[in-house]
Amino acid sequence: MKNQDTKQSPTKRGESPAKEKKEKIITINKKAFHDYEIFNKYEAGLALLGTELKTLRQQKGSVSEAYCRIKDKEVWLVNSNIPEYRYGTTSNHSPLRERKLLLHKNEIRKIISKLQEKGYSLIPLKLYFSGSKVKAEVALARGKRQYDKREAIKKEEMKRQLKRVKQSY
Question: For the purposes of burial, counting CB atoms within 10 Å of the CB of 18, is it exposed (0-12), middle (13-18) or buried (19 or more)?
Answer without folding.
Answer: exposed
